[in-house]
Design goal:
CATH superfamily of the largest domain: Nitrogenase molybdenum iron protein domain
Number of domains: 3
CATH class of the largest domain: Alpha Beta
Helix content: 40-55%
CATH architecture of the largest domain: 3-Layer(aba) Sandwich
Distance between the termini: 77 Å
Radius of gyration: 25 Å
């Protein structure tokens, strides 16, 4: 893991978006998949599933019998952990739910904002070789709390045509209404435009590979999306008293995600930096996903030496990392210095993995510097707002002349006339 000075750091390190996103041929392939699904519906989805996943399906929808079989296949220990996570995630997200509100400047005027859940959402959960029940909870529970009418879930089937039982059980526990055995760009297209089996939704959320991310970008506008998530990233801020064993473990917890994941440590201590390098090498040798993590650390891992904590915070705010761990003395005292981060973990006993599974806040976070202007997934992503305006006749009369002047200054005489015809009757 390379060690550099803060003055040598370049933000380009975290610009790790897949090069295929700039590949016109890649885009043409994704757009072709989307268009074929729009035209051919279920038949196209089934064909693409056989081609890309190697699975020939007779039915896209998961049956109730399959869910019941999944419930019998998972352990009691898994149920306990899942329900514990569900309770914490639910409790946290219930606090995010917004209410409609109204103002009465006087008895003749009512102004307000009506908060309404969106009608439907499609949740993408990566699958196939891996299983992510935590992703199910993090996407479905906020939608359920918001009051979304229909929650659909898509996830790639395993080689035998089934869905991982842990994912199915998580979907049942979280209140998902419909589950479909489909992944990739074809799943995004099916959710965006509908097929004979898969209902069109108004918003799509959830992470996926480059095909999924690009498909989400191309259907945006026809439907809403949560975000375009890039490779994972973590930034640890450390001082003389930081435990290098903990810091190394947390950096590697993100490095094992993807060869393009970024693990960065910003520290004021050269002694700590030396210990961290040795500890990362030691723990890397013991990691199951050693090959992936090694590539991540070599390409995008950095230890950045700075002179002061204030300099460290300034660098963090430039990075706007997905995950930020303040593993320093009295971290709460420095929280106000952080402006840009997806999730902030305070102290050495608040590892990133805690946020991934059990703490309660959402683990779907902005990446690649987008935490500078966006937020974690939340209940607010599944609700929309409508302005409410009521004026009595006398209240409109008081502002009629000003409206006419403003409308005519924009040469919108039709707007002005809509006021004039009412004024004529006063």
């Amino acid at each position: 893991m390379k060690t550099i000075r803060g003055t040598e750091f370049k933000e380009e390190l975290l610009q790790r978006s897949d090069s295929s996103q700039l590949d016109l041929e890649f885009d043409r392939n994704v757009l072709s998949i989307i268009e074929i699904v729009r035209l051919e519906g279920d038949r196209a989805v089934l064909d693409f599933t056989e081609r890309f996943d190697g699975v020939k399906l007779d039915n896209l929808m998961v049956s109730e019998e399959e869910i019941q079989e999944a419930e019998q296949a998972v352990s009691e220990e898994f149920y306990h952990a899942l329900r514990s996570a569900k309770q914490r995630i639910t409790s946290y997200h219930e606090a995010q739910k917004e209410q409609s509100w109204f103002l009465n400047p006087n008895e003749s005027i009512v102004l307000g904002q009506k908060v309404t859940p969106i009608d439907s959402v499609g949740i993408y959960v990566p699958g196939g070789k891996a299983a992510y029940p935590s992703t199910v909870l993090m996407n479905a529970l906020p939608a359920k709390i918001a009051g979304v009418g229909l929650i659909s879930m898509v996830t790639p089937p395993q080689r035998d045509g089934t869905i991982n039982p842990h994912v199915l059980v998580a979907a049942k526990e979280a209140g998902v209404d419909r589950i479909y055995k489909v992944g990739g760009a074809q799943a995004i297209a099916a959710l965006a435009y509908g097929t004979e089996t898969i209902d069109k939704v108004v918003k799509i959320t959830g992470p996926g590979n480059a095909y999924v991310a690009r498909a989400k970008k191309w259907v945006f506008g026809d439907v809403a999306i949560d975000m375009i998530a890039g490779p994972s990233e973590i930034c640890v801020v450390a001082d003389d008293n930081t435990n290098p064993i903990y810091a190394a473990a947390d950096l590697l917890s993100q490095a094992e995600h993807d060869e393009r994941a970024a693990a960065v440590c910003v520290t004021t201590s050269e002694v700590f930096a030396s210990k961290l390098v040795a500890e990362i090498e030691r723990q890397l040798a013991q990691l199951d996903r050693q090959e992936i993590a090694t590539q991540s650390i070599e390409q995008f891992g950095r230890i950045i030496l700075v002179d002061t904590l204030q300099e460290a915070f300034e660098l963090v705010n430039r990075l706007a990392p997905e995950h930020l761990q303040l593993m320093i003395d009295n971290p709460m005292e420095h929280l106000a210095s952080i402006r840009n981060a997806g999730a902030i973990f305070l102290g050495e006993h608040s590892p990133e993995a805690l946020g991934d599974y059990m703490a309660g806040p959402n683990h779907t976070l902005p990446t690649s510097g987008t935490a500078a202007f966006s937020s974690p997934l939340g209940v607010y992503d599944f609700m929309k707002k409508s302005s409410v305006i009521y004026y009595s006749e006398s209240a409109l009369a008081e502002v009629a002349d000003d409206i006419i002047i403003l409308a005519e200054s924009e040469q919108l005489t039709g707007h002005a006339n809509s006021i004039k015809v009412r004024k004529a009757g006063y």
